[in-house]
Automatic annotation (TrEMBL):
This is E3 ubiquitin-protein ligase. Its main location: cytoplasm. Ubiquitinated; autoubiquitinated. The WWE domain mediates non-covalent poly(ADP-ribose)-binding. It is found in: Cytoplasm, Cytosol. CDD domains: RING-HC_RNF146. Residues 160-212 are annotated as: Disordered. Pfam families: WWE (PF02825), zf-C3HC4_3 (PF13920). The keyword Metal-binding applies. The keyword Zinc applies. E3 ubiquitin-protein ligase that specifically binds poly-ADP-ribosylated proteins and mediates their ubiquitination and subsequent degradation.
Amino acid sequence: MATAGSDSNNFVDDKEVSECAVCLQPYVHPAQLPCGHIFCFLCVKGIANQSKKCAMCRQEIPRNFVKHPHLLGEVNEGDSDIFEGCYQWYYEGRNGWWQYDERTSKELEVAYKSGERTCELLIAGFLYVMDFETMLQLRRNDPSRRRKIKRDLASIDKKGVAGLRTSESNQNSAQNCTQSNDINPTMSRDEHLEQAQEPTVCLTDSQDVANA
């Protein structure tokens, strides 16, 4: 599985380039290909699984790049926003739960809190339908490709973020975020929304704030 790198000296300068050429949005976990072009990691994953060539210069992407990407900076769980009630969004992988990247998480949260039954999101080059009633992610052109999703506490054990292992992946950060009520990830949307109105307490330290 992909592991985050720490080559901070090559981190993209926002004054020069601030948007990914694939999704035309600000970089999320920027990854640099051997040809030198930079894209969001999930955008690279999408083109690597489909055209297998750089979207800018058409140079071939190494077969093992997705598993061993050249990331420009660390990937930290604390970089993602924590939603009301100390929640985050997760999808189920083969060996546990992974946190969605911050952009996808925000889009899921907006649709969920708006009361929508489903929403469509582009992830790694594929269009997915997110069903909030069944809590499933289904590929639009192949519904048999599905996985479970859930909205749960940001402090739960997780494998990493968007397929990338983080420095916090093997640690339980329960001390950073506590809630006065027990959370049941199988609760319905209405029950979640009702519980979200109840008072909660989030505890952070200076290091967590610095990483936010």
